[in-house]
Amino acid sequence: MSRFLVQFQSPALAFLVGGMLLAAFRSKLEIPDAIYQFCVFMLLMRIGLEGGLEIRDAELADMILPAFIALIVGCGIVLIGCVVLAYLPGVKTEDAIATAGLFGAVSASTLAAAMLMLEEQAITYEAWVPALYPFMDIPALIVAIVLANVYLAKKKHGPTAKTKIWPIVTNSLRGSALSALLLGLALGLFTNPEVVFESFYDPLFRGLLSVLMLIMGMEAYARLNELRKVAHWYAVYAAVAPLVHGLIAFGLGYIAHVFTGFSPGGVILLAVMAGSSSDISGPPTLRAAIPSANPAAYIGSSTSVGTPIAIAVGIPLYVALAEAVFGL
What we know:
Blueprint: H1 2-7, H2 11-24, H3 33-57, H4 60-86, H5 93-104, H6 108-120, H7 133-157, H8 165-173, H9 176-190, H10 194-222, H11 224-228, H12 233-260, H13 264-275, H14 282-289, H15 295-326
Helix pairs in contact: 2-10, 3-9, 3-10, 4-5, 4-7, 4-12, 5-7, 5-15, 6-10, 6-13, 7-8, 7-14, 10-15, 12-13, 12-15, 13-15
């Protein structure tokens, strides 16, 4: 309990709760969408740049198993989510696939909040761990989009309909959020951006994250009304799934720790990524790729329930679990 109370005093959670309170009291505060997009771009570039810089200097052999785990977890979450949601009453198949895809992908804001909390508590992790983001995020979105397109094609043209997968993959990679992250990784890997990283991107990280968390809190509360309009099973799934996904990734991360010395902080961040649901790259990607899916279902469940659970409950849970398992 003390661990949870301490976490709520951190800037990330404080601004998230503050945003929810503002929306609950019907504040007229509005933050322009351009500022939101700028904050997202800066966070993803910062994560990508740092990841690229560290991958450049890291032992790639140490990354292979964690990266493989991230890929398997991202795809596995989508497949399991599709099966679970599709059999619940009142849930359309394309909505189930889009929701599972969103929960299989990664939230940059949740990852950034976890990184900040670990730094505040002096819990170290390999600096390349945030670069595992695309290994989980991109495959999850692609699997969801492919499954949805195959399902819709068979629904429209019959069970023998064929779907071209490669154009779906390339379209997904052109999304604005993934483009920013991949650009940051490439610049960190192949150029020398240390000066601009240390003087511009890194100092702004905490401030921009606080603004983003405030926006996320306001949107989370606002979307509760949208979530009430669709099946209540989405709310149940969004409350339970993040913790289940995070604990699965924590267990697999522990295996990586045993075999490769993967740090406890790295295990925590891997669990955080798995327990998060995409708030940046996922929604616009899925809206464009699966237009028949209901955004109130997958975005509402993710933003109003999944993200607050992942940040307010998931992160303290994984930190406490790491303290018990690794003796931090």
